[in-house]
Design brief:
By secondary structure, the chain is mostly helical. The chain contains 25 helices and 6 strands.
């Protein structure tokens, strides 16, 4: 077997193991890839070496990461959040980079160039970990969620000038200003050409491609654009990642954005997995164990330093204590773009081997502890929120006012499309209902016939009490996320053990866990959709509707028995 084929086989095997590990232990895939990389790398089991082939694949992972960042870049979205993005994001990046850079340059005596590299790398936070957890916890639209996503968006934008700055720093020390000026002018010239030409050609290219109605041609065209623009910026003396970012940004302004994003995701995820595996391979376990005190100190500085900066900013912005704590915890770790920058600094010899290992180790450890830190902060933030009497009183007052006089009503948790349909059915049967949702925009837009829609988190006991849980006839949980639903079920059962709780889940894998938590009935969408499709198929084939319905009834009974026995 050739060395290249062996390398690819090992990388693919590691990627498969990484995804399986993430699914098994329900951790972000980024972390599982890093663990696998540490295990199989030259400092672990030494199954895989840092060869040119490995670095080439990893570099393409960075290219597709930046292409995805460009795809998510929306001028309209940026305008909507411009105050948060520019104000909050720029302040966080500036003070975090300044603090970390100063500690590196002065405290660890690494020089100002190394300090700048470390500062910029450490200032970045993990979009992959944080966005996934916020979505899972149903907190993307909360105040802390919006602030966190605004900072992450600014970091995505800030990495572009960082990719220009670092190569300029690697130039002759006595002519840094000249190197920066040349790099900036060169970058502006290349970007102007790419954007000026790209804006005119991108939509025309995809318009032409779609006429052929070929998915294969569409995907190949996207890959050609990603690789071609990366090659163009590399030939101009800039980074591959910069061209990929521009390509994604240009496509994001067309109607083909979502289709491109869906088509490119498999390539992006696989190559990003390779990139994170190679980052894990760089971690020297021997160095970690021989420098434990210094590493612990570095992790504490990184996590608490970043959290302190965000806490100060949120307090200045007059955030309530619970929102400030959540935002600080969500941004108190290193991120993927920071790993890109620290690796680029190593390649350019801007950072010493010892400083690189210490920084990389601290960054990776901060990413490993991030999910636990966010969960811990959420619990404490809930307790802090109880002491925020002004906010609590208004929210609870609104819910109590809307539930006043309701008796034998149904509480709907989550008022998206599913919750709205439940409300329509209840209204048709003249059953009053109160819907709770933590998306303030949705509660303002919602017009519930026969019921009320109010802002509130049903996982909190005081919200449930205000919604009249003790007087309610039943609870229907329409959240798309099973973890959030499980927290709500537990909160309800602490108050009432007799009330029926009907829960929506995506598939059967979470049904048994929710039943064990106290749900009365769990409705798996995939299972129920399959039953309805099967019944409709029988009906179209001439089978009497009564027999089709009987098949559905038997299947449901068997499914309930299976859940009850598991």
């Amino acid at each position: 077997m050739s060395p290249s084929l062996l390398t690819l086989t090992l990388l693919l095997s590691a990627a498969v193991a990484g995804v399986a590990l993430a699914r098994q232990f329900k951790i972000p895939p980024v972390l599982s890839y890093l663990v696998i990389g540490i295990a199989i790398g030259p400092h672990g089991l030494a199954l895989l070496r840092e060869t040119d082939e490995v670095h080439a694949l990893a570099e393409f992972g960075i290219v597709f990461l930046m292409f995805s960042v460009g795809l998510e870049f929306s001028l309209q979205h940026l305008k909507t959040m411009r105050t948060l993005v520019v104000g909050f994001g720029a302040t966080q990046l500036l003070f975090t980079a300044l603090g970390a850079g100063t500690v590196t340059a002065v405290g660890f005596e690494q020089g100002w160039r190394s300090g700048l590299v470390v500062g910029l790398a450490v200032a970045m936070s993990s979009t992959a970990i944080v966005a996934g957890m916020l979505s899972e916890r149903f907190e993307l639209h909360s105040r802390s969620g919006r602030q966190t996503m605004a900072v992450l968006l600014f970091q995505d934008l800030a990495v572009v000038p960082c990719l220009i700055l670092l190569p300029a720093l690697a130039g002759p020390g006595d002519d840094l200003a000249n190197s920066l000026a040349i790099a900036s002018l060169q970058t502006l010239g290349v970007l102007f050409l790419l954007v000026w030409i790209g804006q005119r050609l991108m939509k025309r290219v995809y318009d032409t491609v779609t006429k052929y109605r070929s998915e294969e041609l569409f995907v190949l065209t996207t890959l050609w654009i990603v690789v071609g623009l990366s090659f163009a910026t590399a030939q101009a003396g800039l980074s591959l990642a910069l061209g990929a970012f521009v390509g994604g940004m240009l496509i994001s302004e067309t109607v083909y954005r979502h289709q491109v994003e869906a088509d490119i995701r498999p390539f992006r995820d696989i190559l990003l997995g390779f990139f994170f595996i190679t980052i894990g391979m760089m971690l020297d376990i021997g160095y970690v164990f021989s420098h434990v005190p210094a590493l612990i100190f570095a992790v504490v500085l990184l996590v608490f330093g970043k959290a302190a900066v965000v806490l100060i900013i949120t307090y200045v912005a007059k955030n309530p204590p619970d929102s400030a704590l959540r935002t600080a915890a969500q941004l108190a770790q290193a991120g993927e773009l920071g790993l890109v920058l620290i690796e680029l600094g190593r390649q350019l010899n801007l950072i010493s081997a010892d400083a690189f290992q210490l920084t990389l180790s601290a960054m990776l450890l901060s990413m490993f502890i991030a999910p636990f830190l966010i969960e811990l902060a959420a619990r404490h933030a809930g307790q802090l929120g109880l002491s925020d009497w002004a906010l609590k009183a208004k929210s609870i007052h609104d819910i109590s006012t809307r539930s006043f006089g309701l008796e034998g009503h149904v509480i709907i948790c989550g008022y998206g499309r599913t919750g709205e349909r439940i409300g329509e059915f209840l209204h048709a049967e003249q059953i009053p209902f109160l819907a709770l949702d933590i998306d303030s925009h949705r509660t303002k837009r919602a017009a519930a016939a026969g019921g009320a829609v109010v802002f509130g988190n049903p996982a909190r006991a005081e919200v449930l009490q205000a919604a009249g849980l003790k007087r309610a006839r039943g609870v229907s949980i329409a959240y798309p996320d099973s973890r959030a639903a499980e927290r709500v079920v537990a909160a309800i059962r602490r108050i009432r053990s007799d009330i029926p709780i009907i829960v929506r889940v995506a598939d059967e894998s979470d049904a048994a866990r929710l039943m064990a938590a106290g749900a009365t009935e769990v409705v798996p969408e995939v299972f129920e959709g399959g039953l309805l499709l099967a019944a409709e198929t029988l009906g179209q084939l001439g089978i009497p509707i009564e027999r089709a319905v009987e098949h559905v009834r038997i299947a449901r009974a068997e499914h309930r028995a299976k859940l009850a026995g598991s």
